[in-house]
Amino acid sequence: PAMEYAALGEAAAEKLCLYRQDPGGWRGCRRTGEVAVSCRPSAEFAGSVYRGEGIVPASPQMVWECIKPVAGGLRTKWDQNVKNFEVIEAVNDTVSVCRTTTPSAFMRIISPREFVDVVLIKQYEDGTMLSAATNVEHPLCPPQPDFVRGFNYPCGCFCIPLPGEPDRTQLLTFFQTDLGGYLPQTVVDSFFPASIAGFYSNLTKAVKTLKV
């Protein structure tokens, strides 16, 4: 299935490129000093796809260092929504199958979750870095009793260099997640915009500490 995992990763990356190019149907759902969050109904499942767009005050390399999906990476240190991140199988240099666990959230209404995804890393000619992910099953990763299994549909982050501004990076993110379990829709609809705003805010703080 290595070929299958690689193909799934490529397909997720293509979806994200389509989302990036398609301005239609997004409606604003939250705005902070760091990010504008918009959403529209997902074509993948019965929820929404969320788009976050903001400028991070750091070089693309530094932003990438903070968000890149690697075992032992910085993300578990600054991202409140990532408790643990492990690589289950490295398929090739750019594709891996990973398991992410999240802590309880939203005043514990949302219990801890786990996600198993194929993750693809890609660099484009203009220097843009993409990390794309989508849910998969993996024999080494059966559902764990203490977690609700959630499912990510094509989601990820574009780190986009800004010409002439080496210390600023456009970060475009897409989140498209079925949290699983029996959560009221109102909770889900409130959680994601708040969570994405927190992601940008915590990332901005993280790059500042890296700069020092």
UniProtKB/TrEMBL annotation:
One of its GO terms (biological process) is cholesterol import. Keywords: Lipid transport, Lipid-binding, Transport. InterPro entries: StARD5/6, START-like_dom_sf, START_lipid-bd_dom. Residues 1-212 form the START domain. GO terms for molecular function: cholesterol binding; cholesterol transfer activity. SMART domains: START. May be involved in the intracellular transport of sterols or other lipids. May bind cholesterol or other sterols. This is STAR5 protein. It comes from Piaya cayana (Common squirrel cuckoo).
